[in-house]
Write a structure and sequence with these properties.
By secondary structure, the chain is mainly beta. The protein has one helix and 14 strands.
Length: 201
Amino acid sequence: MFLNNYNRKIFIKSSDDLGMVEISTMVNVKYYTVTPDSFYTFGSRFNRKDEIESLVHQNFRLKIANEKWINLTDKLKSSIFDRGEGERWRYQAKLSIPIKDYIQTDTEIEMIHEYSFKCRIENIFQMNQLRFPCKNYSVSIVISEKDENYFPVVASCSSYNVYSLKSYESEQFKGEIYYTIKLPEWVLPGSGYFLTFQKRD
């Protein structure tokens, strides 16, 4: 199981709700081969119940073997799992995707998933790591406006790989409004990025 392409685009802007920002994300994944048991999973975690209740899935589409796009947005089922009081990320979103009717073993598939939610800026912490080897991995992050009290920190992470060690070093960016991370070709599972905001001194 391996991926041809994994691309994530993240847009962060102020929300109408006081003290909250809106985070919109588009994930585009292209699989060389895929089975229902190794397909895309979604399990974002949240600190607060109002944050996870704001989660909206706007678009979910599949393209099977370069055929027409199949829109499954209306067939998604989203649920909330409460991990218990005292947990750092108490609430976890789980997404049920009806893909078994569409996927056959060793089939090339492209997927697009778009979703958004509202979150307190001090609670933003995203970390995405690959489950499978990937040929092309990239992340772009756009922040519509700077916050006077917080600044973003974005960093790449990579699993140890003796073949790419000399040509790749982790990157870290602070305080900008636009970020792009592109990892070298054929990164290993565990490679990815993280995003958070730090309070200014």
